[in-house]
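Q: I have 266 residues here and want to know how they pack in 3D. Can you give me a structure?
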Amino acid sequence: MRLTGKAGIVVGAGQTPGKTVGTGRAAAVLFAREGAKVMLADRDRGSALQTAALIADAGGVAECVRADWTSAADCQAMAAACLEAWGRIDFLHNNVGIGAGDSDPLRLTEEAFDRILTVNLKGCVLSCQAALPVMREQGSGSIVNISSIAALAAATRLTAYKLSKAAINALSQSLAIDNAAHGIRVNTIMPGLLDTPMAVDARAAHSGVPREQVVAGRAAAVPLRGQMGTGWDVAYASLFLHSDEAQFITGAVLPVDGGQLARVGG
């Protein structure tokens, strides 16, 4: 019960259909299991409702709000919904990202660039802008932004995605310093290769490659046991950063990647 008495928002609490659990859904379920009241925000409210059902079945507390975080009005609405429901925003968990249509720097289209930067970066800015005034008034709060090791690793065919995630890292550190005096902590998690519906099932469907082949290829690139991580691995790291156990941690950028960033020349 590491989040007992806390209430907050998970943005991206639904997920792409698939055989495994996504990072947003895993975080929402885990936070509720650990005692938090969770506002589930997602552009697909039906998917968020599925997450809410999992939480309710386990005896947790959650409510849903449809929100497209690229809209400032929607972000303000999800913050207001959390306040109306529970009177506080103790944590904000930003877990939204896309990469479809990305390419190398010479082939990246203007449309794809604009779409990826809008969803991955602008949305995160707007979400933080909606929650931070409430946290400042409280004198406390925790924000965790989900980035990617693509921010630091070679990713020649993921130009816009890499740029957006590097910017998330920079944004989080700026927010951490700007809000430290208000008792608000802001940290970043950089997942590596995960077996999630968006990363595996959607890729298999798009490429026509069997899911098992996609899994094998990605797992071979992970130093730790030659296995990908799961949505739960990112969720547990997030739980720690949102909990009071991490009360002296802010501005951190934490890889959850099975050692990928530690490998040099591999």
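Q: Anything worth noting?
A: The chain has one domain: 7-192+230-246. The first helix runs from residue 23 to 33.
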